[in-house]
Amino acid sequence: MKNITDSFLSLGYGGSAGSFGFNTDILATNPINISVVLGVLIFFGKGVLNDLLDNRKQRILSTIRNSEELRRGAIEQLERARTRLQKMKLEADEYRVNGYSEIEREKRNLINATFDSLKRLENYKNETLIFEQQRAINQVRQRVFQQALQGALGTLNSCLNNELHVRTISTNIGILGTVGEKTD
Q1: Is residue 178, in this structure, part of any structural domain at all?
Q2: End-to-end CA separation in angstroms for the chain
């Protein structure tokens, strides 16, 4: 440290030998050289450095402005997307509700149609049963009538002789003749 102080003093007072000269002691002259170089750089480089810093500042401000604009645009897009999402959710809920009510309506219609079909089938079955019962009753009646007729004919044939037979026929022809005259 003493050498540095001595170096400053030797420059200020013209040196200890009374002459101006070069100091070859690197440790003593380096701070002086650095301070001179820095002084020259600050004096002459101040404008260039200010211009570089101003340009850098303008680029940073421009980047910040662009970022702010992009952020605002992104926020607007996000809000539009949120609005669209909300709208789509409402539409989906509406479709879901309409779908459920449509399903319920179709289910009721299907149940009603099935119930009506079952009623018609039950009525058809009942009508078929009644028809089959009537047909069976008619067949039984017809058979009973045929058997009764055959029994009566058999009884008549066995009971009637030729003379009674001829007399019955003559009487019936007489009755028919009388009826025929009345209608004329």
Answers
A1: no
A2: 176
pTM summary value: 0.37
C-alpha distances in Å from residue 96, one per residue of 100, 103, 106: 6, 10, 15
Mean pLDDT computed over 121-140: 93
How far apart CA 63 and CA 52 sit, in angstroms, is 16
* From 23-32, 90-99, 121-130, 159-168, the region with the lowest mean pLDDT: 23-32
The answer to whether 29 and 7 have CB atoms below 8 angstroms apart is: yes
Which has the closest alpha carbon to 11: 25, 22, 24, 27? 22
Whether the CB-CB separation of 125 and 117 falls below 8 Å is answered with no
Split into its structural domains, the chain has a count of 1
Per-residue pLDDT, 177: 81
Question: For residue 47, what are the domain limits?
Answer: 32-130
